[in-house]
Specification:
The protein is built from three helices and seven strands, in the order E-H-E-E-H-E-E-H-E-E. It is an alpha+beta fold and 142 residues long. The protein has a single domain, classed as Molybdopterin biosynthesis MoaE subunit (Aldehyde Oxidoreductase, domain 3, Alpha-Beta Complex). Strand 4 and strand 5 form a beta hairpin. Helix 2 runs antiparallel to helix 3. The longest helix has 19 residues.
Length: 142
């Protein structure tokens, strides 16, 4: 679990998934549940199109909060394997900013863990989003 500079690359996603398939604790996991947060090229309420999002974080506190989430999820759901990564800096529309992978014995366990991780990251990790529009204007998002 960590915070990385820049987008989360396809190469990283592929290698992580391959590593998960090779991981063997007590037999193979029954479910591999993933979540990829992709920067949308939506339009805001005024009709301006989002070009990219600049993610900024309070580094040491963000890492501490990610570790807390990791520990809490490991304790509550006991996944076989867990990966949590959030990108920072400029991430363009169509690129991945958040990736979560949970390998577990049962799908319900894995899906619930992923859902909880997304919620906890959004509500407790000090990461801020600045949406930058095609015309160069921007706004900070809560």
């Amino acid at each position: 679990m960590y915070i990385t500079k820049g987008k989360i690359t396809q190469k990283f996603l592929t290698l992580t998934f391959k590593k998960t398939l090779k991981f063997k604790k007590a037999g193979y996991p029954g479910a591999i549940c993933t979540f990829s947060g992709i920067v949308r090229d939506d339009k805001d309420k005024s009709g301006k199109k989002i070009n990219y999002i600049e993610y900024k974080c309070y580094g040491s506190m963000a890492k501490t909060k990610m570790k807390e989430i990791y520990s809490a999820v490991k304790k509550k759901y006991a996944p076989d394997y867990l990966v949590m990564v959030h990108g920072t800096g400029k991430i363009k529309a169509g690129e991945t900013s958040l990736f979560i992978l949970v390998a577990s014995q049962h799908s319900k366990q894995g899906l619930n863990a992923v859902k909880e991780i997304v919620k906890l990251i959004k509500t407790t990790v000090p990461i801020w989003k600045k949406e930058v529009f095609a015309d160069g204007s921007y706004r900070w998002v809560e």
